[in-house]
Fold these 2 entries.
Entry 1:
Amino acid sequence: DAKTTQPTSMDCAEGRAANLPCNHSTISGNEYVYWYRQIHSQGPQYIIHGLKNNETNEMASLIITEDRKSSTLILPHATLRDTAVYYCIVRSYYGQNFVFGPGTRLSVLP
Amino acid sequence: NAGVTQTPKFRVLKTGQSMTLLCAQDMNHEYMYWYRQDPGMGLRLIHYSVGEGTTAKGEVPDGYNVSRLKKQNFLLGLESAAPSQTSVYFCASREGAAGDKNIQYFGAGTRLSVL
């Protein structure tokens, strides 16, 4: 599975959009991009995933560049409860497990 | 719908003691996983199972054993606990093999301290 690179930490003002970048320059054609988050040592929570098209659900939007070498997770109106560590994971279509790197620690500030 | 349930939530062991962590899922998922998470780090895969009666090693399997006698349960055993096994343990399950069914759902974790 391709390796990902994320910033160590980010801040965002409450009510503003939070844009979390992820670099996955070695991604291959059959690999999906997944985003999870972990709130204060709870179990990781699935957010969204995509292959090459942009995706949106009730939690977030995922923007994948045309060359698929990077992506951005967008939380449109961040709240204090969105403070968490966000993990960007790339895995193949039949991949068995997720490789969780250190992720990005997002702090939403009042 | 409880999802993925882990028991116990907390445990303190002395070096050399044994224990079993239980993971139960009520989503009829085929695949189940055990991860450990050390402070400030991401999750690392210990063992996983692709179906009832099957198990396989992950990234850090040493010192652990697992069993999947029933589809809904995945047990993680520590035969002789060591301080290096102090960690938070997460169980996860997922529905199917590929693509859009390749989403893992996690339990709340078991916090284990080995003194």
Entry 2:
Amino acid sequence: TQLLEQSPQFLSIQEGENLTVYCNSSSVFSSLQWYRQEPGEGPVLLVTVVTGGEVKKLKRLTFQFGDARKDSSLHITAAQPGDTGLYLCAGEEETGGTSYGKLTFGQGTILTVHP
Amino acid sequence: EAQVTQNPRYLITVTGKKLTVTCSQNMNHEYMSWYRQDPGLGLRQIYYSMNVEVTDKGDVPEGYKVSRKEKRNFPLILESPSPNQTSLYFCASSWTSGSREQFFGPGTRLTVL
């Protein structure tokens, strides 16, 4: 099983600050997904990155896939209390040509943004 | 509305009493999966199914069973629950190709006494 190390596990910041969450592995992934989960709900997909070096932006959120497709980061600019939640990365294993690759989730980052 | 539903949402039971958590999706997804979520451990896959009658073990299958007799349903069965199966359980579905976005159900909070 491929492992995804997510850091930090906890992040508590003030409104307006910037932050970065990291997702690292020694394995190569064909794609990497970022999810956000709020209390009492299931995770919801934010973005999928597929190409090494790819950068995607979603308003104040910037997602990057490492060149070697082993790591990813999520950067939030000017965090707001509404960004509070659990952020999860999930990597899809390379399958050598088949259509299915197992998804492996990181441990998650609990983000709290204080007003 | 496209969704994944799970029932029950909350369940308190005792050791050894068989239980089933149901999962249903209305998006015609081939792939369905069960995860458990525990503090500090993230989401760990229990079982998955690529399509009807095709199931396989995930990372933590011990103590669980699944079946996939219909495309839309993927129940999780605990034949003899134990306290270490106390957890938050999520069912998810997706296509088997393309974006592979996982659509998650709302979760089932299980407590085994």
